[in-house]
Amino acid sequence: MSGTSQSALGEFGVQSALAPEGAGATAINGLTIGMTIAFGVIFVLLVLFAWAVLAGRLAPRRWWIWAGGIALPLVSVLALVVVSTGILQKITREEPDALVIEVTGKQFWWDVLYDPEGWALRDANEIVIPKGRPVTFRLKSDNVIHSFWVPKLTGKMDMIPGRVNTLPVLATETGRFRGQCAEFCGLSHPKMAFEVVVLEPAEFDAWMQRNSGEARDAARSELLRGRDVFVEAGCPACHTIRGVADGGTLGPDLTRVGGRGSLGAGMWRMNQGTLAGWIADPSAMKPGAEMPSYNHLPGPDLRALSAYLASLK
Amino acid sequence: MFVAISLLLVIAFAMAWSAMPPQHSVAGAAAEPFRQAGRQLSDWYRIHIRQGLAEKTPDYEAASRRFLDADPQRGAELIVQYGCGACHDIPGIRAAQGTVGPDLHDFAQQSYVAGVLPNRPGDLTRWLLNPPAHSPATAMPDLGLKQDEARDIAAYLLGSEVRR
Ligand SMILES: [Cu+2]
């Protein structure tokens, strides 16, 4: 039950449905607590009743069967249906002017496309949204079934190949909230997480502005060397860094990779060391990751490349 | 009667538990004092008894504490934070199973750091502060550690032998 995960990330966005920070999760949490209390009370009453009968303090009556066997379940189940349907309606209602973010489940990472019909800003493994402004996630998959779940924001929703599911979210608090793939999808399914970063609306707009252009320039000679290694080593076959190498889509977009909170889809803290370790041996950090090992790079090249990626913020 | 009361207690407990914020798990809260006491006891044993009894098994952790005035516990946290486990297999650190660099189990018994510096607390600290300066072709990057951070990490690594 410990909420702060002792993963390689140390202190990292918390993932708990019992401490909601979004409209959907708040409603679901309220429903859970209400149901637990209501049925707890019914259970206690039943136990007391049974005890009274067994101890001979109450003589059994025929109408009890009607009351306790039919009327009571009918009323309570009906009440449950009404309340939970109402909440389901509420949390899945889509706002027409919501910001659309398309998220595609991959093995084992997340492709993120902000505002597909407008900005079409591509990123990966971290989702930035504004506080208090409705957002609609458009959830897809092009391989197996995944499930998109940020317990602090709202309930989970499957990502099914060939279908588009939508999930509205309204964040009520700023912060970093951890999400997790909630449908077994292969070897590294447990290592397929991400973070949702909720910013104040003005900060969010600035963030979109800042990140919609090309990647940050390499300023030092080591970083320039790193950029060359990126191209020479063949990384653009799978990865895009806008302004440096476009077109790679088999792996996560790396245009602002150093600015993400985590590496490897929510698994490791982002820094030059973990980046270098990842490039040299991705499958040791994430079994089944669909990226080859680059342990043939000379040490200085590995350092330059990882320093360059870390500088892309 | 007894059954009814114990049922009631179980229900009350379950309800309270489900309503509690996740950081405050009952088991966690109850176990913490015991864990603390256990840690203190084993530290005390290592420093006062084991070290005093046997010259053959020097207590590196106590030694590094003395030499470096360092905090190996904080070193462990820093190792997690900097993600050294991406490249190294390190004793006592969960998820540190990297195979890019050398395995750091029993590191204290090694004579050299990366084959270039004598394996002493000060030299190890220097290595961690800037590996490429000592071994220009190395794959281990300069991770931007601060002096006191490198010192605490060095203390943890030198204590790794006792920690098995
Ligand atoms: Cu999965």
Automatic annotation (TrEMBL), chain A:
<keyword id="KW-0408">Iron</keyword>
<protein>
    <recommendedName>
        <fullName>Cytochrome aa3 subunit 2</fullName>
    </recommendedName>
</protein>
<dbReference type="GO" id="GO:0005507">
    <property type="term" value="F:copper ion binding"/>
</dbReference>
<keyword id="KW-1133">Transmembrane helix</keyword>
<dbReference type="GO" id="GO:0042773">
    <property type="term" value="P:ATP synthesis coupled electron transport"/>
</dbReference>
<feature type="domain" description="Cytochrome oxidase subunit II copper A binding">
    <location>
        <begin position="96"/>
        <end position="210"/>
    </location>
</feature>
<feature type="transmembrane region" description="Helical">
    <location>
        <begin position="33"/>
        <end position="56"/>
    </location>
</feature>
<dbReference type="GO" id="GO:0020037">
    <property type="term" value="F:heme binding"/>
</dbReference>
<comment type="function">
    <text>Subunits I and II form the functional core of the enzyme complex. Electrons originating in cytochrome c are transferred via heme a and Cu(A) to the binuclear center formed by heme a3 and Cu(B).</text>
</comment>
<keyword id="KW-0186">Copper</keyword>
<dbReference type="InterPro" id="IPR008972">
    <property type="entry name" value="Cupredoxin"/>
</dbReference>
<feature type="domain" description="Cytochrome c">
    <location>
        <begin position="221"/>
        <end position="313"/>
    </location>
</feature>
<keyword id="KW-0479">Metal-binding</keyword>
<dbReference type="InterPro" id="IPR009056">
    <property type="entry name" value="Cyt_c-like_dom"/>
</dbReference>
<dbReference type="GO" id="GO:0016491">
    <property type="term" value="F:oxidoreductase activity"/>
</dbReference>
<dbReference type="InterPro" id="IPR036909">
    <property type="entry name" value="Cyt_c-like_dom_sf"/>
</dbReference>
<dbReference type="InterPro" id="IPR002429">
    <property type="entry name" value="CcO_II-like_C"/>
</dbReference>
<dbReference type="Pfam" id="PF00116">
    <property type="entry name" value="COX2"/>
</dbReference>
<dbReference type="InterPro" id="IPR034236">
    <property type="entry name" value="CuRO_CcO_Caa3_II"/>
</dbReference>
<keyword id="KW-0472">Membrane</keyword>
<dbReference type="InterPro" id="IPR045187">
    <property type="entry name" value="CcO_II"/>
</dbReference>
<dbReference type="Pfam" id="PF00034">
    <property type="entry name" value="Cytochrom_C"/>
</dbReference>
From TrEMBL, chain B:
<dbReference type="InterPro" id="IPR009056">
    <property type="entry name" value="Cyt_c-like_dom"/>
</dbReference>
<dbReference type="GO" id="GO:0020037">
    <property type="term" value="F:heme binding"/>
</dbReference>
<keyword id="KW-0479">Metal-binding</keyword>
<dbReference type="GO" id="GO:0046872">
    <property type="term" value="F:metal ion binding"/>
</dbReference>
<protein>
    <submittedName>
        <fullName>Cytochrome c2</fullName>
    </submittedName>
</protein>
<dbReference type="InterPro" id="IPR036909">
    <property type="entry name" value="Cyt_c-like_dom_sf"/>
</dbReference>
<dbReference type="Pfam" id="PF00034">
    <property type="entry name" value="Cytochrom_C"/>
</dbReference>
<keyword id="KW-0349">Heme</keyword>
<keyword id="KW-0732">Signal</keyword>
<feature type="signal peptide">
    <location>
        <begin position="1"/>
        <end position="19"/>
    </location>
</feature>
<feature type="domain" description="Cytochrome c">
    <location>
        <begin position="70"/>
        <end position="161"/>
    </location>
</feature>
<dbReference type="GO" id="GO:0009055">
    <property type="term" value="F:electron transfer activity"/>
</dbReference>
<keyword id="KW-0408">Iron</keyword>
